[in-house]
Amino acid sequence: MTDAHNLQKSLEETKVAFQKSVEAHEVTSNEKLQLEAEVAKLKEALRDMEGRALDVEDVERMRVQEVKDMLAWDETAKADAEASLASFKTECENKIIREHEVGFMHAVRQTMYFCVIPPGFSFELSKDFYQGNIWTLLTYPRMLNRMRWHPPFNCRQGSGHHYEC
Question: What distance in Å separates the CA atoms of residue 100 and residue 93, rounded to the nearest whole number?
Fold first, then answer.
């Protein structure tokens, strides 16, 4: 009986150990399932974050391209504006020169009509008349600073600041 009793006791101890082992296995299995669920959630969160990161990179890349396009457009607009300005400046200078040439030729025609011009008369563009004297244009402005302007000797003051010659 002792053998049967020992076997019975051993069987009960084995049952208890087996029960504890099954419970431990269930706890471990539950923990494993919870950990696997958490890993799945983390993987899903990682995929979501990767997707967002790719979206952000796409948006950032598009914004950078947008800024590059704007800068290129600005450079083109600046170059066009500079070309237009240079063209306008040249056009204005040419108009001013033409106006001066027309005015000068007008004065020459009037002079030829109203005055007797000796044959072989020539003129120098670097000189001008002031108070009956010929001045070089290099000294002319300095002389004007020192002298007060007077009308030519054959002119008299009319109304206002106008002179009649």
Answer: 11
- In our burial notation (b when 16+ CB lie closer than 10 A, e otherwise), range 40-65 reads eeeeeeeeeeeeeeeeeeeeeeeeee
Q: Which one-letter amino acid corresponds to residue 87?
A: S
Hunting for tokens 């990161």 — which residue is that? Answer: 53
Pairwise CA distance, residues 21 & 14, whole Å: 10
Strand 163-164 versus strand 156-157 pairing type: antiparallel
CB 146 within 8 A of CB 135: no
pLDDT, tens digit, 9 for 90 and up, residues 102-159: 888 888 778 777 776 666 666 666 666 666 666 676 665 555 555 555 555 555 555 5
- pTM for this prediction: 0.38
Domain ranges of the chain: 2-122, 123-165
